[in-house]
Amino acid sequence: VVASIGLGISHAPQLWLRPPDEVDEVNAWYDAAHAAAARLRDLDLDAIVVIGNDHLHSTFLDMVVPFTVVTSARVRAELITGVGLEEPGTPALAESLVERMIDDGFEVAFSQSLTADHSVFIPLAALRAGGLTVPAIPMLVNCYVPPQPTLRRCFELGERLGAWAEASGSRVGVIGTGGLSHFPGTPRYRDPDREADEELLTTLREGKPEDLLRWDAKELDRRGLVELRSWMVALGARAGDMRPNQLTYQPSWHCGYTVVEF
Ligand SMILES: [Fe+2]
Question: Which of the chain's ends, N or C, has fewer CB atoms near its CB within 10 Å?
Answer without folding.
Answer: N
